[in-house]
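To: structure desk
From: M.T.
Subject: fold request, one chain
Message: Could you run this one when you get a chance? Sequence is below, nothing fancy, just the single chain.
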Amino acid sequence: MVFVFVWLIVDVSPDQTSNLSRIMDLDIDIGADAVDHIAIANQESLFGLETKMRKIKGWLKEILDEMYYLKKRKERFTQTNRTANISSAARDVHNYIIPAPPGRGDETDNELIKRICEWLTKVSFGSIYSESSSKATEGTGMWFIESEEFGRWKRGDSKILWGTGKPGAGKTTLSSIVIKHLQKDNIARQAPVIFAFCRYTEKYSPSEIFASWIQQLLRRDRSTLEHVRESFRTHKRDNSRPLDVELHQLMSAVVRKFDRVFIVLDGLDEAEEDARKPLLDFINSLPSNTHTLIMSRPLGSLQCLFPCAVQVDIEARNEDIEQFVEKRILDIPSLHAILLGKAAAKEELCTAIKRKSGGMFLIAALQVEALKGCISIQSLMKKLETLPIGLNELYDHTLERIEAQGKEKSSLAKQVLLWATYALRPMSILELQEAVAIEFDSKPFDANRISPIELLLDICCGLVTLDTSAQRPQEPGFYDEDKNHPNVRLIRTFHSSPTSGSSV
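Reply: Done. Structure tokens follow.
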């Protein structure tokens, strides 16, 4: 009778139905087999009889395993749904049993969270945050953390804090400093920090960013699983994806699990133009316990649509520039050797670069790069006097340095800049090395023409850097082996914008 009751309230699979039928007929089958065995015991060998008994035991083990599986599912269901009625109980037991593939009968919450996170999105902003955070000079950015606007936003007095600054002002680095500060300062159990970094070279849709935020919260607190599980099972069954409306509903339900949720969105201006407003609308319509920091270049038309957002001008402070320059000097062996023990000369250099940088880390970085060829304090001071001030002038100066390296190196550097700037996606080291080694009038390809990556970077005089944070392309291609190499880093030009066709 127990078996019949379970069969009636649970919509089981055909295989399970077959096994349960065998339970009800078990006494008949065993009885029949027993008679057969007695009848033929005198004719058959002991080995044949044992074979039949093993077969019967196999049936019994299979049935017992099935019943144990149903019992465990029923116990789990009963613990979490004590007040459920019989009809909802039947549906929930069905949902527990049917979607689970073979071998996942006792899947833990952690395993399910891992599968849901993989299904939500492949996009991960963690590597970009780690890369940017590692480049931040210790002690910089405190002017922003200690500002009145940031303090009010952090306390929950304002929903959106919008920082705007010119290119090279250090907005991305400042975003990573804020993330790190919030993670350390908050007892982040009830105030998680989630983030996204938009880039010209990485075209993320609003849906991918929304899904990533849900994914980050799900990994942060397993109690949010209850809000995402049903959507996951429905879409997996139907082989579909959630629309933005459903992602908004999921996100809203999940953030209500916490006292507050901090969101950091860096580089809104680098998102595709038709993606910017949907991102802002999504953020603005989230529950009141969400507090968002946006970093971008000035976006007047969009900023006017959100008058309640608190605006902050982002510009590198003199003390931050000074710390940054000191760190860069330590990173360049020739400059470090020249200035070792020369405190007055070092202070004069830092002061001059602060004055000429105009509050832009990018200009300060290129100015320090321009000093690499100096051989003494005298040549260093002479070079400082001729350093250009504006960004365009500094780029012109850098291109002149590239030209001065000689015909072969300058020609190779221009190829590197062209490939790195106009490639449809970030290039790997191997891709760049092979691309600039191609001679169109020479066949076959000669691997002896490949130049070391260190040389390619050096001849570009700081205009091309290794970017360890960018995501590898997902599509298959000629460079799959390179794509999967753990040490591959990607090439990215300083603030190059494919939409403008020039460095900005």
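Reply (cont.): The CA atoms of residues 8 and 213 lie 42 Å apart. Let me know if you need anything else for the meeting.
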